[in-house]
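Readers of this paper often ask what the protein records in our data store actually look like. Such a record has a labelled line for the sequence and another for the backbone structure tokens. Nothing more is needed to write down the fold, since each code stands for a local backbone conformation. The record that follows is passed on verbatim for readers who wish to inspect the format.
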Amino acid sequence: MKATFGFLVFYMALQVGYSQSPKETKEAIGKLKFMEGVWRGIGWIKLEEKKQAFRATETVTKKLDGSAILFESLGVALEDSNNIITNAKSILSYNDVTKQYSVKITMSDGSVFEPDASLTQPSTFEWRLQYAGGYLKYIHEVKGKTWMAKGFNSTDGVNWNQIVESELSKQ
């Protein structure tokens, strides 16, 4: 009983001392409302210099009382729905101290990425990642009920090659 009470006191002290402003966090997450919902469509990805067509579903849901967003992404080959092209879950949050979005992407193979993320325009969200072999960036733009996503890679962070594109419709 004493241990439980001690943990509760410790937990509450952490909440008071280190909690973020719920208002500012929720306002920042609210700016991404344009991405919420279920989206479906088709796209392509460049694999070993060949384009592979896929069918994509993105499910975007606010979580934790509006302080985070969960992205669930699934892409399967058009010719063979058993061939999974991408399967990922991402959590997006906002740090009111640094004034930056934070995203953590987990792929079905267990790999985890934490790219830099930003809202570049009112309906355009971008994330960038530097890795051992170069750079990746993904630009997500929503216009009405259409979500365009484009991905690029680069060896120098200056010259970009498109490697993926999808067009999704809000369901």
Remarks:
- The chain has two helices and eleven strands.
